[in-house]
Specification:
Mean pLDDT: 97
Number of strands: 12
Shape: elongated
Number of domains: 2
CATH topology of the largest domain: Rossmann fold
Largest sheet: 7 strands, parallel
Low-confidence stretches: none
CATH architecture of the largest domain: 3-Layer(aba) Sandwich
Helix content: 25-40%
Strand content: 15-25%
Radius of gyration: 21 Å
Structural class: alpha/beta
Length: 321
């Protein structure tokens, strides 16, 4: 079984190599550049990869769709596949993804951003840098999450992991998803068409929904105005969910009290973007799913498990529909 691993990112790279090389029937080829990948696909049975920008994804899909292609299985190591979804996945190839492997870490990061904002951690660090002890200066605008209402927009695996961590803080939770959810963690469940109803009640909004044509700029100026005044907005999904110019204006006016963004659009964020100077904002460089040894092992194990299933002609897990 000839397996090509396009190691264009460092995420779980060592763990992936160890896990795949431990499969006796696997002959592994590791490539880093797009040109090397396209050359290595000839005669390969399987491809393990991360998402890629659309222009790169298009060339990969073209190669996989060409006459004589032998690749039967693609396994993504990233939960998102926007680059490939934009150009269209190749027909006739089984495509799988690492369902839930990094969800706990992403949820942990979401709660970190939330707690840092409501407990005024950036203001504390600023004071500390000035060697300034002023309790009133930081406490005047601090608040607590206890008793607050959180709307989780997108109640899949990441959304539920966020709920698991939010519930012990005394937060009441509304799920907003494409279908109603039945879950003991929830106080209410609404469908996406009822989003504005949830926003009118929510003190905290967590974005964990996939980016699609339907959800692009889901949080535009009008939707931000539909939120409760002073809402805390956290985005650990995709930058395209939010109209960033509208968010910068809402932060400046106070309509949005604070925001934490792990994803922006484009990435990296240009130096002149107004978000850089917006108040009460924490930007992290899209690494919510990283830096967890446990998550990295899960990513590697999920790839190796499906590879074994392919070799043994068993049904693959977590197929992309």
């Amino acid at each position: 079984m000839r397996v090509v691993y396009w190691a264009r990112l460092q995420l779980a790279r060592r763990q992936i190599l160890d896990a795949v090389q431990a499969v006796p029937e696997a002959e592994l080829a590791v490539v880093e550049t797009l040109d090397d990948l396209l050359g290595a696909l000839h005669g390969a049975d399987a491809l393990i990869l991360y998402d890629a920008p659309p222009e790169q994804a298009r060339r990969v899909v073209e190669a996989l769709s060409a006459p004589g292609n032998t690749v039967r299985w693609m396994h993504f190591l990233t939960a998102g596949r926007e680059g490939f979804d934009e150009v269209g996945l190749p027909a006739g190839i089984a495509v799988t993804y690492p369902a839930g492997c990094v969800s706990p870490t992403v949820a942990e990061h979401a709660m970190t951003l939330l707690l840092a904002l409501v407990r005024r951690v950036p203001a504390m660090l600023e004071q500390q840098g000035k060697r300034n002890w002023s309790r009133l200066e930081v406490s005047a605008k601090a608040t607590s999450v206890e008793g607050k209402v959180m709307a989780i927009v997108g109640y899949g695996q990441i959304g539920r992991e966020i709920a698991l961590r939010a519930r012990p803080f005394g937060i009441r939770i509304i799920a907003v998803s494409r279908t109603r959810k039945s879950d003991q963690l929830l106080d209410d469940s609404l469908v996406l068409s009822e989003l504005d109803q949830a926003l009118a009640r929510a003190d905290i909004v967590m974005l964990a929904i996939a980016l699609t044509p339907e959800t692009r700029h889901l949080f535009n100026r009008q939707r931000l105005e539909a939120c409760k005044h002073g809402v805390v907005l956290i985005n650990v999904a995709r930058g395209g969910l939010v109209d960033q110019h509208a968010l910068a204006a809402a932060l400046t006016s106070g309509q949005v009290g604070a925001a934490g963004l792990d994803a922006v659009d484009p990435e990296p964020l240009p130096s002149g973007d107004p978000l850089w100077t917006a108040p009460n904002l924490i930007i992290s460089p899209h690494f919510a799913g990283g830096a967890s040894a446990v998550s990295q092992l899960r990513l590697a194990d999920s790839a190796a498990a499906n590879l074994k299933r392919l070799i043994n002609k068993e049904p693959l897990q977590h197929l992309v529909s």
